[in-house]
Amino acid sequence: MGFAPPTNGISLRTGPRNFIGRCGTESANVYLVSPEVAAASAIRGRITDPRDLGLASLRYEIPARFIIDESMFLKPSEQYDNKPIRRGPNIRPLPEFEALGADISGEVLIKVEDDVTTDHIVPAGANYMPIRCNTPEIAKYVFKVVDESFAERAKKAGSGIVIAGHNYGQGSSREQAALAPRYLGVKAVIAKSFARIHLANLVNFGIIPLIFADESDFAAFEQGDVISFDTALLQEGVPYIVRNRSKNSEIKVGSPLSQDELDIVKVGGRLNWIKIRNS
Question: In terms of C-beta distances under 8 Å and separation of at least 24 residues, what long-range contacts does 151-159 make, across chains too?
Answer without folding.
Answer: 151/184, 153/109, 154/109, 154/181, 154/184, 154/185, 154/186, 155/184, 155/185, 157/106, 157/107, 157/109, 157/185, 158/106, 158/185, 159/104, 159/105, 159/106, 159/185, 159/187
